[in-house]
Structures are given as C-alpha cells and as structure tokens.
Amino acid sequence: MELVGFSILDRLYGLHSRYVNRVIECTRLFPAPFMPECHKGLLFYRGDLYDVIDVGILFSRKASAKEPPYRIILLKWELKKLAIIPDVVIGLVSLDDPSVKQEASRVNGQPIDLITPDSLWDQLLKLSYGPGKIL
Predict the structure, then answer these.
(1) What percent of the chain has pLDDT over 90?
(2) Is 21 within 8 Å of 74 (Cβ atoms)?
(3) Of 83, 109, 112, 113, which residue is 20 to 30 A from 119 by alpha carbon distance?
(4) Which domains does the chain have, with CATH numbers?
(5) Is 73 in contact with 52 (CB distance < 8 Å)?
(6) Of residues 8, 37, 29, the one with CA closest to residue 127
(7) How many Å apart are CA 56 and CA 63, to the nearest integer?
(8) Residue 58 belongs to what H/E stretch?
(9) What is the largest CA-CA distance in the chain?
C-alpha cells in the first residue's frame, strides 16, 4: 500500500495515496470569516476550491506552519476536496501488508498513524463555527 507520509509534532501520519491529488507549495491563501482556528483559508488551484486546514491545530491544538510558503497536501475523494498543512511532508511511503492495523504500522521503526480524508472531515464537522457566544 502506498501512503503519503507527513509529520505533526514529530508524530508520523499517513494517507492512502489514492486520495492525494498533489503536494504543492503555496504562499497565498484567502481567509474566510467565522471559521475555526484550524481553517487557514481557501485555496483555488487548477479550477478547484479547497478549504485549507492546519492539521497541527486540528490534531494537537498547536500550529504546524508558522509562515508561508506552506507545503500543502491536496486531497480529493468522492465529491469532497480538502487541503492540509502538516509540519513536514515526508513523501511516498510503502507498507508491505495492506491489511496491517493502524497501531501496528511502522515506517523505519517509527509508528505511523493511518488516517483517511473522511476521518479529517468528521473531525472538522465537530468544530464550532461562527463568532462564538454573543452576550
């Protein structure tokens, strides 16, 4: 199984490569109002509009990328699109056994957490949006 590996706070994650459209460097994002802290803005790339998410904030509440240019992983699956900003994009990683369980997967001796775009999407849907409580 081919994964695109990336790290957040020295923890390794992998997404199945079939969901990854491209990895790009991006210097300009367009902010969107009333979005959660992890939502860094919108990106228009080759005719597609992506919500850009800092996965460091989404997973651990610490910002991944401090300043542009960002390395961004563009994801496409079903009819959804999402772009993520990790700390470091590792690149393609091969796992020998596609049936391997999440907690048992290792790359170069380091554990790797397998995630799916749907799991990212589900985490985003649980976040609060808007300006917060109005007094």
Answers:
(1) 56
(2) yes
(3) 109
(4) 2-125 (2.40.50.180)
(5) no
(6) 37
(7) 5
(8) helix 55-60
(9) 56
